[in-house]
Amino acid sequence: MTKIENIIEELKSLTLLEAVELVKNIEEVFNVDASSSANTNMMVMPTSIDPEMASGVEEKTEFDLILEEVPGPKKIAILKVVRSLTGLGLKEAKDLVESAPKVVKEAISKEDAEEIKNKLEEVGAKVSIK
């Protein structure tokens, strides 16, 4: 048996308390820190999970603008705004407004969605962004 094999066999016979004491003595004698060298190759797992990183989902960049509700007295004003925003003809815009809740615009930026929402809310429509 080699010298190293003998040391290994001796280490196997140590109790846990003796092993802890051995580590402390080695740290003092050789001026090393066993805890830092033992963890250099270990992957550290976070104790708290960042919600953005946990799901792996990127921040949403495309939004749908939904016309939720059209009050009767405001219908014509809302219809005009919907036509100007969508480029739909009178009949198509009327069908869209009357079938609320309905998607007015799909896959638009958050800024555009907010701008359109404000225009529709100014004339009395109830709108949501999803």
UniProtKB/TrEMBL annotation:
Origin superkingdom: Eukaryota
Keyword Phosphoprotein listed: no
Assembly and interaction partners: Homodimer. Part of the ribosomal stalk of the 50S ribosomal subunit. Forms a multimeric L10(L12)X complex, where L10 forms an elongated spine to which 2 to 4 L12 dimers bind in a sequential fashion. Binds GTP-bound translation factors.
Ranges of residues in domain Large ribosomal subunit protein bL12 oligomerization: 3-35
Task performed by this protein: Forms part of the ribosomal stalk which helps the ribosome interact with GTP-bound translation factors. Is thus essential for accurate translation.
Family from the record: Belongs to the bacterial ribosomal protein bL12 family.
Listed name of the protein: Large ribosomal subunit protein bL12c
Domain Large ribosomal subunit protein bL12 C-terminal: 63-130
Listed GO biological process terms: translation
Subcellular location: Plastid, Chloroplast
Predominant location: plastid
GO molecular-function terms, A-Z: mRNA binding; structural constituent of ribosome
UniProt KW keywords: Chloroplast, Plastid, Ribonucleoprotein, Ribosomal protein
Name of encoding gene: rpl12
A GO-annotated cellular component: chloroplast
UniProt entry tagged with the keyword Cell cycle: no
Pfam families, per the entry: Ribosomal_L12 (PF00542), Ribosomal_L12_N (PF16320)
